[in-house]
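Appendix B. One record, verbatim.
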Amino acid sequence: MAERVVLASASPRRRTLLAEAGLSFEIEVADVDEDLAGNPEPEEAAVELGLRKARAVAGRHAGDGRLVIGADTIVATGAEGAGRLLGKPADADEARAMLSSLSGTRHRVVTGVAVIRTRDGREVSAFERTWVTMRALSPAEVEAYVASGEWRDKAGGYAIQENADAFVTGLEEGGFDNVVGLPVALTQKLLAELAG
């Protein structure tokens, strides 16, 4: 790949996933407005936010040789349709409420991925969706998890790659890496579409 790859994210989980895939990349944090108008589907919302992040960083490098990756992960309650979109909890009370609302449910984790080639501004984007089945959690389990602080900076208030894996009884459709925050195979596919 001739172009330099840039990850438009401060997420240590995305950084780890890309590094484990053997990709060489730089990091530039994108500071974007994450408010969404209306009541978008989780898939649409995740792609839109991924595009915003990629565009924010790509705009700094217009005309040069970079491939900028933007990604955003959203957890959504409800079986189909828009559902309720859960981003990152602002505080322990919100984390407690999110975890309680996900307890005993089958919910969606959607990551939107966008790649922009700065040489000509070409964009590609897609999403991966994983259905997560979470067992019912006792109030004590919720309290212990909130007290651990592991919920910080995690969509839906939990980290499947850490101790919350004990809450999850099944994954369908998408992969584990998607729930962590970046579907690696999809990201590589999008990069390949724009490489060269």
